[in-house]
Amino acid sequence: MPARYCLVSGLVQGVAFRWFTKETALRLGLAGWVRNLPDGRVETLLQGPDESLTLAMDALQAGPPHARVATMACSDRPEDPSLRGFVVLR
């Protein structure tokens, strides 16, 4: 299964962006993780079917209601067979 790593910047901390990412991933059957970075960005790794990844990228670009995504840079990553479920990292 393909994986995609993304860095999201803008108003993405303190607006439930990580929880939105987790709910989106679980709804689409994706595995991976999400976490806040000290510089104010959020990083996430999502893995699953291409169609689900595309839907997730669209959702993350929009973000939850109070978020304001300025940029989202994503890159493909190799499959990680150890990924199971989706977690919010601290």
TrEMBL record:
InterPro entries listed in its UniProt record: Acylphosphatase, Acylphosphatase-like_dom, Acylphosphatase-like_dom_sf, Acylphosphatase_CS
Keywords: Hydrolase
Domain Acylphosphatase-like positions: 3-90
Active site: R18, N36
Superkingdom in the source lineage: Bacteria
GO molecular-function terms, A-Z: acylphosphatase activity
Reaction catalysed by this enzyme: an acyl phosphate + H2O = a carboxylate + phosphate + H(+)
Signal sequence extent: none
Keyword Hydrolase: yes
Enzyme class: hydrolase
E.C. number: 3.6.1.7
Family indicated by similarity: Belongs to the acylphosphatase family.
PANTHER family with a match to the protein in the record: ACYLPHOSPHATASE (PTHR47268)
Name used for this protein in its record: Acylphosphatase
